[in-house]
Amino acid sequence: MDDVMLKLKPARRERLADVLYGQILEQIASGQMAEGAKLPSEARICRDFQVSRPVVREALMRLQADGLVVSRQGIGTFVKSRPSNKLTDFAASAEIASYLRAFEPRLALETECAGLAAMRRTKAQLNQIGEALAALEGAFARGETGWEEDFAFHLAVAAAAGNELFPRLLEELGDILRGSMRMALSLTRQGSEDRRRRVLEEHRKIFTAISGQNRELARLYMRYHLTESRARITGSHGDL
Q1: Torsional sign, CA 79, 81, 85, 90
Q2: Which of 53, 128, 191, 209 makes a 20 to 30 Å CA pair with 146?
Q3: Where do the CATH 1.20.120.530 domains begin and end in the chain?
Q4: What residues form the membrane-spanning segments (predicted)?
Q5: 3-state secondary structure 209-225
Q6: How many other CB atoms are found less than 10 A from the CB of residue 192?
Q7: What is the C-alpha to C-alpha distance for residues 230 and 99, in angstroms, rounded to an integer?
């Protein structure tokens, strides 16, 4: 009898790098590796995690890009900052890398959406953004995460940019964006009152700039909001 042909897909290196990223992140967040601690060598990580050197380099590169580790040439890689130990309560460790990567296309896409929305928004579209903002404020007041309301706000801004491709692109990224928003706002809900106030204030500034048809301010405030959101996840602010 002939052997059955199996249709197998090779394991993606990016996925392995995400898994390794998540495991190292867990050890940093839990305090097993303290700030300033030196990570094992690439060769040691390859052996311990049973992955190739390119996978290790990819994971370390992403950890460095996220501000969690710093590489010192000829010396090694060290823990730079420690995110909340609650981070992995709100997302699987292997998913966190992809959630953080989502901020890069968001910065390019949503910054421009905000600027165009300030120029092109209709009264009805501005009202829709305002309603989404009010819904987010209400969710925070009730002690809810508010990630669905947050997504609705950003989608309303994209729709107001006057090009139907913008909201379609956000919807295409919907799963990963919702996951990153859920993770970020879950941390915000667990954080300080000042942190929650700042998150709402960032959204209000975006709305005010769009309302006032100030393109540059709208772009600036959207970029600032997304940059701060990412920093809050990685623990750069230390205000958990």
Answers
A1: negative
A2: 209
A3: 99-234
A4: none
A5: HHHCCCHHHHHHHHHHH
A6: 11
A7: 9
Using one digit for the tens of pLDDT, what is the confidence trace for 180-238? 898 888 888 877 788 899 999 999 999 999 999 999 999 999 999 999 998 888 875 54
What backbone torsions phi and psi does residue 72 show, to the nearest 5 degrees?
Answer: -115, 115
As its CATH architecture, domain 16-79 has Orthogonal Bundle (1.10)
Specify the residue for token string 């901020």.
103
**Beta-carbon contacts of residue 110 (< 8 Å; ≥ 6 apart):** 154, 157, 158, 170, 222, 226
- Look-up of token digits 């495991």: 23
Q: What's the rounded Cα separation, in Å, for the pair 31 and 209?
A: 41
The reported pLDDT for the residue numbered 96 is 84
> How many Cα neighbours within 13 Å face the side chain of 184?
27
Class of domain 99-234: mainly alpha
Q: For the residues 124-149, what does the mean pLDDT come to?
A: 96
Q: Residue 186 corresponds to which tokens in the numbers above?
A: 């879950």
Please identify which residue in the block is written with the tokens 């909201």.
Answer: 167
Look at residues 154, 153, 161, 155 and name the one whose alpha carbon lies nearest to residue 136.
Answer: 153
Residue 8: per-residue pLDDT: 36
Percentage of the chain beyond pLDDT 70 is 92
- Give yes or no for a contact between 186 and 224, defined as CB atoms under 8 angstroms apart: no
Does the pLDDT value for residue 7 go beyond 80?
Answer: no
Q: Using DSSP, state whether 79 is helix, strand or coil.
A: strand
